[in-house]
Amino acid sequence: DAGVIQSPRHEVTEMGQEVTLRCKPISGHDYLFWYRQTMMRGLELLIYFNNNVPIDDSGMPEDRFSAKMPNASFSTLKIQPSEPRDSAVYFCASSLSRELFFGEGSRLTVL
Amino acid sequence: AQRVTQPEKLLSVFKGAPVELKCNYSYSGSPELFWYVQYSRQRLQLLLRHISRESIKGFTADLNKGETSFHLKKPFAQEEDSAMYYCALQRAGSYQLTFGKGTKLSVIP
Predict the structure, then answer these.
(1) Is it true that the peptide bond before A54 is cis, omega within 30 degrees of 0?
(2) Of the candidates B101, B55, B50, which has an alpha carbon nearest to the alpha carbon of residue A44?
(3) List of chain B residues whose C-beta atoms are within 8 Å of the C-beta of residue A45
(4) A41 contact B CB<8A
(5) A99, B7, B53, B57 - which has most CB atoms within 10 Å?
(6) How close is the nearest chain A Cα to the Cα of B101, in Å?
(7) pLDDT score at A37
(8) Are the C-beta atoms of residues A82 and A110 closer than 8 Å to each other?
(9) Closest by alpha carbon to A33, among B24, B30, B88?
């Protein structure tokens, strides 16, 4: 298994543009998490899903952020419109037990 | 709400010296505690969890409920231990992890 796959690895965009980050979890895992990492705030949980259903989205900063999981093998995190303060590394992780398996992250820069 | 505190952003030690990475938590229930590690150019990965009580790569961590701490220790640091270390807490009955801000360990040859 290639592990959790995220795309794109790097994204540079201008303020106001829509950004879509993608994640393919490990096959068979029933939990999927989206985290954001910044120097100031560290790793913050944005949202997580269980069996494709959002369980807790209280970490989503504001309405500009949305996440979907249309099936067990795919999830997206969308930011519309993007702002410079959204610049961060976004990690996706999946889990079957208590251990989380992380992707390599998507580094987003909003100019 | 739960919180995880790692007081040191950076810790530098000489090769062969003992290492202790501090982690304190606040949570009213019985948590599960973890240490995750991120080596250069690698993914964040699980290092160890308190319930397994095992030593991984020479590292151990003991959950001290009285002091609400879960410090990571290794008696003799190696250069390959240089990495970013994150302490994390999982609430009882939940798969959600709350992370500390991390400590960067640098082992000097």
Answers:
(1) no
(2) B101
(3) 96-98
(4) yes
(5) A99
(6) 5
(7) 93
(8) yes
(9) B88
Structure token pair of residue B30: 């019985």
Burial zone of B88 (CB within 10 Å; 0-12 exposed, 13-18 middle, 19+ buried): buried
Q: What is the DSSP string of A60-104?
A: --STTEEEEEEETTEEEEEESS--GGG-EEEEEEEESSS-EEE--
Nearest Cα neighbor of A33 from A8, A55, A65 is A55
Q: B47 with A107: CB under 8 angstroms?
A: no
**Cβ-based contacts of B90 with chain A (< 8 Å):** 98
Rounded Cα distance between A27 and B37, Å, is 23
Tell whether omega for the bond before A8 is within 30 degrees of 0, i.e. cis. yes
The predicted pLDDT at position B77 comes to 97
Q: What are the Cα distances from residue A89, in Å, to A39, A42, A43, A78, B22?
A: 10, 10, 9, 14, 25
CB contact (8 A) between residue B97 and residue A91: no
Burial of A67 (0-12, 13-18, 19+ CB in 10 A): buried
Please enumerate in sequence order all residues whose Cβ is within 8 A of that of B52, keeping only pairs 6 or more positions apart, or say none: none
Q: What tokens were used for B72?
A: 């990571």
The tokens of B37 are what?
């590690």
